[in-house]
Design brief:
Shape: globular
Strand content: under 5%
Number of strands: 0
């Protein structure tokens, strides 16, 4: 494994050591592995940019950190003597990931499309369900408010995928979301 990739993994282990709401190091690692899987079907992508952007995609997330201009990501990348052009490329990909900040926008680079899909895949399926309730509990949201998140975001993600591989994976995870939600509502309202 590339030294800088291993260093990025250590960096996110440290920076997310106290996160218990679904934006932890395990989430970033799943996004990284999702991105690698998608990238394997996109031979023209820059795998180095995809890898670092996937690993660092949440280190400046506004829900978690009060940083400006990708401060945490830039700190890490500067520490590894990356040139400004590469830093900007990685940060541009990171800035394309957020659902709430990029609603309705399609990323302009293949690398950003891959990382956005990789992150969105971790929001659906079984892991997405677990993360949704963990985040809702951490934010002290009522169960019904957390369930509303399925309708406001999660059930929309399948149709927002950018890559063929992302779309393929999303279909299966989306079906599981729908089945879970149907069963949950039956049990909640005894239907």
């Amino acid at each position: 494994m590339n030294t800088i990739i291993q260093s990025a993994i250590e960096y996110i282990k440290d920076i997310f050591s106290n996160d218990f709401g679904g934006h932890d190091v395990e989430h970033s690692m799943r996004v990284y592995y999702n991105a690698l899987q998608i990238a394997s079907t996109e031979p023209t992508c820059n795998l180095f940019i995809v890898s670092l952007a996937a690993l660092l995609h949440d280190v400046d997330d506004y829900k978690l950190f009060n940083t400006v201009n990708n401060e945490n990501a830039r700190y890490f990348l500067n520490l590894h003597n990356m040139d400004n052009e590469m830093i900007d490329s990685i940060c541009n990909v990171i800035n394309s990931v957020s659902y709430s900040k990029n609603k309705g926008l399609t990323p302009t680079t293949l690398e950003a499309k891959i990382v956005q899909d990789a992150d969105r895949l971790d929001a659906i399926g079984a892991i997405g369900i677990a993360r949704t309730f963990a985040f809702g509990g951490e934010r002290k949201r009522k169960l019904t408010d957390t369930i509303q998140h399925f309708y406001d975001k999660l059930l929309l993600l399948k149709d927002m995928m950018n890559t063929d591989e992302g779309k393929r994976i999303a279909i299966e995870r989306h079906i599981f979301l729908e089945q879970f939600l149907d069963k949950l509502l039956q049990e909640m309202y005894l239907k």
